[in-house]
Amino acid sequence: MSRKKKRQFEQKTEETSTEFSSEDFEFARRDEERIYDKKFETKPVGFFRDAMKRFAKNRYNVYATIILLTLVLLAIFVPAFTTKNITGQEPQLRFLPPRIPVVEHLGIADGTSRVENVRVDPDTVDLEEDFGLPSEDRYRHEYIVEDSVEANYRYCDDIAESCFGGQNVLTHDGEDTFTILEAPEFWVFSDAENPVVEIDIESMSDNPLTELTVFIGDEELGTITEAGTYTFDVDPQTSRLHLEFDAVANEYVSLNSVTLSDDAEEDPLYFYEGYDLAFWSIDGEQSDASYERRDGREMRIDFDFDEYEAAFGQREQSAYSSRDYYALIEEYDEVCEKTVDPDDPERWTFSEGCPVIEVKGQSRPIEWEGEEYYTYHVVLDYAVYQGFDDTPYFLFGTTSNGRDLFAVSWRALRTSLFIGVTASLVNITIGIIYGSIEGYYGGKIDLLLERFAEVMGRIPWLVTLSIASALLGPGVFTLFVILIFSGWIGISGITRTQFYRYKRREYVLASRTLGAKDRRLIFRHILPNGIGTIITTSVLSIPMVIFIESTISYLGFGIGHGVDFNVGPVEFSGVSIGVLLADGQAQMYANPYLTVAPALIIAILMITFNMFGNALRDAFNPSLRGVEE
Amino acid sequence: MIRYTLIRTLWIFIILFIVVSLNFILLRVAPEYPPPDPDQRDIYYERQRDDGFVTRVTLLEEVEEDAERMEEIREHGRELAGVAHFDDRNGTMWVYEDVPIMQQYASWMTNILTEWNWGYSTRIQVNVPVFDVLVSRIPVTVQLNLIALFFYIPIGFTLGIIAALKKNSTTDNAISTLVMIGISVPNFVVMSILVLFFGYTLGWLPTQFPASDIVGIIQLTAVVLPVLALASNPIAHLTRMTRAELTEVLTSDFLLLARTKGLTRPQAVVRHAMRNSMVPLVPGIIFSFVGLLSGSVVIEQIYSIPGTGRIFVRAMQEDDYNLVLGVTAFYTIISLFAVLLVDLSYGIVDPRIRMGARK
């Protein structure tokens, strides 16, 4: 208080001193508890609660975490509860395309697959309608989706029934001068009315000396010297047609068709073109002439094929073991009502819902080592036979072993996650211990350990991979060795940095001056500040490990088919996502869905895992405490 | 600075030495798979003898002791009799025995240092020097990786700059999403999806790398997919780093000063912010080459690119360990030199950093 003010104050008190006595004053809050002992009415926000709050702030990260959790839950529960085949071999069900309820009505994932560029069965071809069907052995016609057939044509010049139209070209070689081209059979047309032979020549050599003379039997009908359509009247008889080609070397004649028609019938009596014409025989003086097809069209078709109906429809098996048959009938005892064919006691049918629809007969029994063996010829309802009430849905399709890719994918994800998490846990443990030692003790220990870690970290993964798989061979253990070999270095580095960062902070020093022991310093002051980053790095190291695992398995050096392993009661398949992708790679052209599903799963897993890690990073960053955006 | 450079260089060479030696010794411990063809095998072991990995003993039928030994070897076969190889003809047998591993190691080092002899391939190209096999594959890989490198840098920078300048906008969010995808999805998955979509479904690009004797536009189009797959991850990383660096610089004091001097925002950003934000990115870019190179092992496998990565995988599958040794040495050398370059570049590109200098 300055002297001037003091004087003023003194003056004031002199003026007012008589107006107040001590009774006029009263202690504030005398009745209440003392203020400095009062408890907080709000709850203190702890480290993890605070982290949780910040974690929930970013909506996208929360969604990502939910998706990630869903993936993990699917990976745990789908393989455990699936009713479909995930381990056995079901060659009948291999390569079924995806079929998904609801979506199937939109025309995608409806269990049909587009089959492209298939040869047609020549008997089914309708050239005018551009329609044909494939051979029945491979694609049963009843399962081809209606109106889905699209025909396209390609050039062909081979003597095959599927090669339509075009010409047959007779060419003289080197020294030929005279060749006879003869119809393969005798024409019988003695009853014909005004029969006419029509010969259609596409082209012919320009040489005026080149002649094609038409004979039927011994009767000469006429001579052709240039391209065009020629008709010749013939008398009804039974005889063979032949053409005499008289030309010098290297001359040719190209024939479109040869027809014999008459007035009585609308269709020609005999008609040869393309494939049929190719079977005419040639005979000549030297007979070095060549007779070849040219400019034919071969029909190839694209169509939708209902793979599910084909796989789960009726299926005939001509040799079905009688033992299996009786076991099957016994199993489905309640639904299988037998009706024997009244005409044939060896044939009988079953009621609806029974895996066996019909028995068409049985083989003669064979006796071997005192037991009788015989087989039935049965028609099976394959869906029921496989244990499905109805045609099943394979959401992602089936693999080359006929396994349900949906369940197999989640099983693979379970393996990937297990290996990723376990290897990461080992890495994290080693990393934190190593890093803490480095960071807390510092000095020479730090220097030595750090050099060692650097050498380890600088070894390229190809070197680790080659050494581990050369010495140990592929397998789970090798995989772990590779993953752990240098996986811990990142975390040890972070831990070390965190220790360096916080061990000399003022509050650590303050705590130390107040007498805090090392333990309190580490667990109360250094680690809580550092743990956020360590946890984040640890969590983010899991997708990294899964990434490396899938890469190694993809290349075929990690786990693979047949490398199943058990951890306690849980079975893990050796097929991780990487292995599935490698399988898909081999089938990429024919069955692309085998790649799509595993690729999407691992992509989503990686993205959500990283987003979850980022959310954790924000959550565990104490400097963001209370920051409102 | 000179001292720092020397120390770093020396240290890198020490690591190189350790890694390559370790690799040699551990691969030699693994069982050996010589060429399957008997004649080739004889040539191979004769070469191994020249290189000092095995010794040769000649046994003659006439000598009684030798005859016993020959009988033993014939009866038990190569592995049980404990010999590397034997060549048995007309009453004479040449027996090859492994020399102790450290002696082999010494021979190996000498061969490399004096003759640049990395041994001979046993399975992939039988009896061809490993170095020749490798050299024929390097151009494809390096070419592909360089294209990826020059492709990803401008894209990464551009995206990062756009994201930083339009922070928290829709564009920024879109770029961040892409970055997240690029960082997360493994490159072989990206490659599979790309091949599936552009190769098989759309049919725009080849589904396999064409053989080198096929000429034409396909040689160019074949590069597109592997480069895209290789670049997806580096682009994402570079974008993220550029965005972070530029955001930090944009809020710095010297940029405010530049603005107060009267520079417009674009001027300030281009002349001051960008230059400064590029500095910390340079080491990352150098190092990304190593990432590209090792990432291309899988890509080459998927796309059948005849590069070093594919030869590595094949050599591993067929147990051609000499070749494996050569390829891994190649990758080790490249990655360690990249590390060295990065270490040195920290000092060179940013004058504010003087690593290893006395305080």
What is the topological layout?
The complex is a heterodimer of chains A (629) and B (359).
Chain A: H1 3-16, H2 47-57, H3 59-81, E1 112-119, E2 150-156, E3 163-164, E4 167-171, E5 178-182, E6 187-188, E7 196-204, E8 211-216, E9 219-224, E10 228-233, E11 238-239, E12 241-246, E13 252-261, E14 270-273, H4 274-277, E15 281-284, E16 290-294, E17 296-306, H5 307-312, E18 314-321, H6 322-331, E19 338-340, E20 348-350, E21 356-362, E22 366-368, E23 371-373, E24 375-381, H7 382-385, H8 405-441, H9 443-458, H10 461-472, H11 476-485, H12 489-503, H13 506-513, H14 518-555, E25 565-567, E26 570-572, H15 577-586, H16 593-619
Antiparallel strand pairs in A: 1-17, 2-17, 3-17, 4-13, 4-16, 5-12, 5-15, 6-11, 7-10, 7-13, 8-9, 8-12, 13-14, 18-24, 19-20, 20-21, 21-24, 22-23, 25-26
Helix pairs in contact in A: 2-16, 3-8, 3-16, 8-9, 8-12, 8-14, 8-15, 8-16, 10-11, 12-14, 13-14, 14-15, 14-16, 15-16
Chain B: H1 2-29, H2 38-50, E1 54-60, H3 64-81, E2 85-89, E3 92-98, H4 101-115, H5 130-165, H6 170-184, H7 187-201, H8 218-250, H9 253-261, H10 265-278, H11 281-303, H12 308-317, H13 321-349
Antiparallel strand pairs in B: 1-3, 2-3
